[in-house]
């Protein structure tokens, strides 16, 4: 089925009998497995939606100084002014991910998406923001139409949980754990999200924090444990059913200090980048699964070449570990299935971002061209990245946009902060 056909044909599943046990309506843990409402294996194969509500600099092919949402926003502001910048971001969020993207993801064979949330976009510190949360509601509706589920991933918590570009932290510090106000806001945000989606079975899990605490801030791991405990209490006060995802620290690779059963309906969530594709490389998480009896979820991996994808994701399947690829769409980065063609004068933006050139004289035109390049129909599809993943096929979405005839390869995408840290992934 092509993506155009998928977008037309996708419809909400026909409701079945209402289960006697309300928890059976939701994705859940059964022993060391994750299952869908109908009892089938859940989270078998998913796709991350990075770059949308929380863009990172490398996803725009920008130099390191402009690597976080705040810095990208400042770059756009410097180039076109406040009013035009606001209009740009409204259009960017409207076009970057649409119903067509979700239908394409489903048509390729994925069964879920992981939606990274930037707290600044959806939350003002007290209440949910209507414009921001509308994007979450839309994604859930599109997933329902496509017959897949949606994980809510707190990628950028209030104050920042990592202290790097990936969490949009204002001072490059993990202030979620050191600022009492940020900590309280993080708890409130999860309570509000749980209240809003408590009865929504298309939401398959709450991913409590993305990649908290690099190794250099390991002294804060006890505070991370406190946050997991308190956030789960806030969620369970209003939502007894949704699956909870607990990520390790140090780029979701380590569980010392948090290796426990936090909730009976929870899983352990790890990430894997740029490391050996051997069973030995998974030994630590496999032993955790056996010791705690909890399901594993490999929630993020990618930014490599197709041969590595085939080996790594095949390894996850061999060990019955559900996985989610990172990420769907980037500007001129051939490590993703969908490649956005950069504007013709994008090099002027890169030079300005790097401090090598002035504000591009035709900045408005460049950003308008970028907006036109965002929809799936304007993008290039790298079939090799999709076909390297087990159970996934590029034949579904290949008729939208163009197929890259060279199917370019980029050995790695080095701008992820884990590469800078030298973490073993």
TrEMBL record:
Keywords: Carbohydrate metabolism, Cellulose degradation, Glycosidase, Hydrolase, Polysaccharide degradation
Listed GO biological process terms: cellulose catabolic process
Keyword DNA damage: no
Positions of the Glycoside hydrolase family domain: 95-329
GO cellular component: cell surface; extracellular region
InterPro entries reported for this sequence: GH, Glyco_hydro_5, Glycosyl_hydrolase_5
Transmembrane segments: none
Residue segments, region Disordered: 1-28, 390-425
Recorded GO MF terms: beta-glucosidase activity
Ranges of biased composition (kind: Low complexity): 1-13
Protein family: Belongs to the glycosyl hydrolase 5 (cellulase A) family.
PANTHER family cross-referenced by the UniProt entry: ENDOGLUCANASE, PUTATIVE (AFU_ORTHOLOGUE AFUA_5G01830)-RELATED, GLUCAN ENDO-1,6-BETA-GLUCOSIDASE B
Protein name: Endoglucanase
């Amino acid at each position: 089925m092509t993506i155009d056909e998928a977008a037309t044909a996708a419809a909400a599943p026909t409701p079945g009998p209402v289960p006697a046990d309300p928890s059976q309506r939701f994705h859940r843990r059964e022993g060391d497995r994750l299952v869908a409402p109908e009892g089938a294996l859940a989270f078998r194969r998913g796709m991350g939606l990075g770059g949308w509500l929380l863009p990172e600099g490398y996803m725009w092919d920008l130099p390191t100084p402009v690597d976080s949402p705040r810095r990208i926003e400042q770059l756009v502001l410097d180039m076109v002014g406040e009013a035009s910048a606001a209009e740009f971001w409204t259009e960017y969020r409207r076009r970057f991910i649409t119903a067509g993207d979700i239908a394409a993801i489903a048509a390729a064979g994925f069964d879920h998406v992981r939606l990274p949330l930037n707290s600044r976009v959806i939350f003002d510190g007290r209440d949910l923001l209507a414009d921001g949360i509308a994007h979450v509601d839309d994604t859930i509706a599109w997933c329902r139409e496509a017959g897949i589920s949606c994980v809510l991933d707190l990628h950028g918590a209030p104050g920042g949980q990592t202290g790097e570009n990936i969490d949009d932290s204002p001072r490059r510090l993990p202030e979620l754990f050191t600022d009492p106000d940020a900590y309280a806001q993080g708890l409130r945000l999860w309570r509000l999200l749980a209240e809003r989606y408590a009865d929504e079975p298309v939401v398959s899990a709450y991913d409590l924090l993305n990649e908290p605490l690099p190794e250099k801030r390991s002294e804060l791991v006890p505070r991370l444990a406190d946050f997991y405990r308190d956030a789960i209490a806030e969620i369970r006060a209003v939502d007894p059913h949704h699956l909870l995802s607990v990520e390790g620290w140090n780029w979701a690779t380590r569980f010392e200090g948090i290796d426990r059963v936090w909730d009976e309906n929870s899983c352990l969530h790890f990430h894997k980048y740029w490391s050996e594709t051997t069973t030995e490389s998974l030994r630590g998480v496999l032993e955790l699964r056996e010791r705690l009896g909890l399901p594993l979820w490999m929630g993020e991996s990618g930014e490599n070449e197709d041969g590595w994808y085939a080996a790594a994701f095949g390894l996850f399947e061999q060990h019955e570990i559900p996985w989610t690829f990172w990420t769907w769409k980037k500007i001129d980065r051939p490590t993703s299935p969908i490649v956005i063609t950069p504007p013709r004068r994008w090099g002027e933006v890169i030079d300005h971002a790097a401090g090598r050139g002035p504000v591009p004289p035709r900045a408005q035109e460049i950003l308008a061209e970028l907006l036109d390049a965002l929809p799936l129909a304007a993008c290039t599809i790298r079939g090799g990245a999709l076909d390297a993943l087990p159970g996934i096929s590029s034949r579904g979405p290949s008729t939208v946009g163009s197929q890259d005839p060279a199917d370019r390869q980029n050995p790695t995408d080095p701008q992820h902060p884990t590469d800078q840290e030298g973490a073993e992934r």
